[in-house]
Amino acid sequence: MDSVDLLIVGGGPCGLAAAISAQRAGLKPLVVEGDVVVSTIARYPTYVKFFSTAEKLSLGGVPFVVAADKPSRRDALAYYRSIVRHFEISLRQYERVTAIERDGSDFIVRSESRTLGPRTTRASAVVVATGYFGSPNRLNVPGEELPHVSHVYREGHEAFDQQVVVVGGGNSAAEAALDLWRSGGRVTLVHFGPTFDKKIKPWVLPDFVNREKEGSIDTRWNSRVISIERDAVRIATGEEVERLPASLAYIMTGFAPNMDLLRAVGVPIDPITGIPHHDAETLETSVPGLFIAGVVVAGFDANKVFIENGRFHGDRIVARLLGRPAPEAPRLSPELDR
């Protein structure tokens, strides 16, 4: 059985940052990732640009240099791969953690490797930094499981000359609708609110508003999906029911963290907020030695934790392990802290 000081479940930027913090403190960390490293970013739309500047996505003091004002998905993937190499982070990819069990003062972490099968690792402490991409916020309407319905958007080529419905009111929905239209799709956006959510990227909103005004993209505000059919999406706007022809439907309603590992080891989860019971300063849960990092800290509200502030969670966790005061949490950029 392998033994480490700190086992980090999740190989996203916040998990990698925690590993760097542990290494710098003289601890032996291990990152276990169920997919490929930074798999959430790998699943982003192909041509997406980040909200934050490259500087605020950097880890470990290693500069993240790009030519443009904002880094792209491809820029980020290359950068985080280089981070793993640079710090020689101990990383197991394609290995899904299935259980975290208490064993005296330590933990036994059970996992399933795609190539090696079941594995067991002993750890003095554990960080759960699993992100949120595995659990989409479903509409729970008939037809949501049909093959032409997707909760993840990659790029718009498949929608060429097709009727498309996009559901949602955030950045993902707005950017998907624009990309689908530019790829030749005939797009209708459906959202239950009267307009977009507050945190739309400032370069995206005017682009969408102009496309809506000129009639290039249709919208149905204050509307809810009631069912999805093979060739249409049925919506309700007040008392009126409308059938929107659609051969593709993208449900861009966001994701929620998967809390199964934490629940199984005995961490209470707030049923309203989805936030695991934890110390806000040290990020230690009610199970001593078990920590959370990244978007898991925010529960259902994924718009509170980003790479920009989650990358410092590891410093607070390591401070707790070393018996030191937690460092002050950094402030978010003004455009995110709204």
What does this structure look like?
Strand 8, helix 4 and strand 9 form a beta-alpha-beta unit. The model has no long low-confidence stretch (mean pLDDT 94). The strands form 3 sheets. Strands 1, 2, 3, 4, 5, 6 and 15 form a 7-stranded mixed beta sheet that branches. Strands 7-14-8-9-10 form a 5-stranded parallel beta sheet, covered by helices on one side. Helix 1 packs parallel to helix 8 and helix 4 crosses helix 5. The protein has 338 residues and is α/β, with parallel strands linked by helices. It is globular. The longest helix has 15 residues.
Annotation keywords:
single chain, 338 residues, alpha/beta, seven-stranded mixed sheet, five-stranded parallel sheet, 8 helices, 21% helix, globular
Strand content: 15-25%
| Bulk shape | globular
Give a short account of the largest sheet: 7 strands, mixed
Structural class: alpha/beta
| Helix and strand element order | EHEHHEEEEEEHEHEEEEEHEHH
**Rg, Å, rounded:** 21 Å
Overall mean confidence score, pLDDT: 94
Q: How many beta strands in the DSSP annotation?
A: 15
Total DSSP helices: 8
N-to-C CA distance: 47 Å
Which residue ranges are poorly predicted, with pLDDT under 50 across at least 5 consecutive positions? Answer: none
The helicity comes to: 10-25%
